[in-house]
């Protein structure tokens, strides 16, 4: 791995990202157009209908052009393994961004129906273009909204997309870090997770979701069985991170 790839602070796109960090929680984007540029790059360079090539081109863009805040290739491999372990028929993602992680879920679970909740319509539009180019638009759906909107988005999933008691096999959490625990609790309150379902949470160390980690530690062996994967923040090997993989015990 080149020094530029290993050390993120040598990349101008990382410095630009720091100045736009305040945009992420309100707009879902860095604010310099990198997300739309990533989609254009993928559509121009990736083979249509080839999930592997689409994922590779997104990774390439994030390393060589502008850093992206999706889960990335190193942590993405952990996500792949967890999805394969769950063998989901129904999967839910919180935080779509450019559609990268949903695409990894679709590749690891080719029979699954996948739903992704996204705050920003612009991100939803970008992700849908990515999914269409990869050939998975028929089984990956983005729902614009938030879990914390008083139940409206969860009601849509229940009324229109078949979410109900014990129906959910896999949950991936990668959105507003402060919302990890309350959003998980809202899903638990609906009774959607089946016993044996897997929940994966990214960025538990950086930027950090301490309340979520504390909850999983407190519930170890009771409601959840959690593995903490020590890894690195996306697209570099300097800053360490945690991915939590938790099996719901019921």
From TrEMBL:
Among PROSITE patterns, the record links this protein to:
SAM_OMT_I
GO terms (BP aspect): methylation
EC number(s) from the headed UniProt entry: 2.1.1.-
Q: What broad class of enzyme is this?
A: transferase
- The UniProt record lists the keyword Lyase: no
The alphabetized UniProt keywords are: Methyltransferase, S-adenosyl-L-methionine, Transferase
Decide whether keyword S-adenosyl-L-methionine is in the record: yes
Q: Name one GO molecular function term.
A: methyltransferase activity
- What domain of life does the native source organism fall in? Bacteria
Could you tell me which PANTHER family the record lists for this protein? CATECHOL O-METHYLTRANSFERASE 1-RELATED (PTHR43836)
Q: What is this protein called?
A: Class I SAM-dependent methyltransferase
Origin species:
[Mycobacterium] crassicus
């Amino acid at each position: 791995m080149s020094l530029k790839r290993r050390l993120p602070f040598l990349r101008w796109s990382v410095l630009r990202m720091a100045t736009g960090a305040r945009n992420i929680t309100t707009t879902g984007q860095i604010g310099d157009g990198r997300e739309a540029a990533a989609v254009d790059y993928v559509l121009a360079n990736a083979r249509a209908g080839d999930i592997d090539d689409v994922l590779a081109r997104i990774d390439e863009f994030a390393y060589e052009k502008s850093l992206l805040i999706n889960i990335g290739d190193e942590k993405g491999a952990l996500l792949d393994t967890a999805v394969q372990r769950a063998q989901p028929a129904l999967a839910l993602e919180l935080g779509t961004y450019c559609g990268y992680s949903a695409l990894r879920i679709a590749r690891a679970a080719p029979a699954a129906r996948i739903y992704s909740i996204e705050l920003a319509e612009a991100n939803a539009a970008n992700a849908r273009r990515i999914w269409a180019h990869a050939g998975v638009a028929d089984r990956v759906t983005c729902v614009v909204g938030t879990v914390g909107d008083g139940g409206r988005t969860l009601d849509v999933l229940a009324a229109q997309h078949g979410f109900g008691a014990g129906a959910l096999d896999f949950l991936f959490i990668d959105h507003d870090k402060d919302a990890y625990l309350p959003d998980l609790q809202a899903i638990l309150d609906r009774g959607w997770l089946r016993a044996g379902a897997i929940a994966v949470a990214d960025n538990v160390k950086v930027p950090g979701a301490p309340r979520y980690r504390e909850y999983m530690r407190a519930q170890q062996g009771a409601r959840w069985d959690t593995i903490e994967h020590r890894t690195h923040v996306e697209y570099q090997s300097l800053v360490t991170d945690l991915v939590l993989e938790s099996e719901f015990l019921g």
